[in-house]
Amino acid sequence: MKPGTRLKSAACDTEAMVIRCSDGTIECGGAPMVETKPDAAAPLAADHSNGTLMGKRYTDADSNYELLCVKPGKGSLAVDGVPLVIKTAKPLPASD
Length: 96
Known about the structure:
The chain is mostly beta strands. The chain has strands spanning 6-8, 15-20, 26-28, 31-32, 57-59, 66-71, 77-79, 82-83, 85-86. A 5-stranded antiparallel beta sheet has the order 1-2-6-5-9, with no helix packed on it. Strands 4-3-7-8 form a 4-stranded antiparallel beta sheet, with no helix packed on it.
């Protein structure tokens, strides 16, 4: 997988664009994300149903993965079962 790839959730309506990635399985709603939407939806896992917000970037603790949510849904993003969190903006330096 390379930056710019658009992934779709197999469990909900979430779609995300890959900004940065490494080796691992990107998941949404407890199911692996795919490039083409499957005909039959996978079940949404209860522990991976916090939802996604459009326009937000999601990242892991080590910043190996970064995804941009382009379509929101009910599932939450994860990599190999580890949840991704919303990336926060870097604080600007104080001006005196």
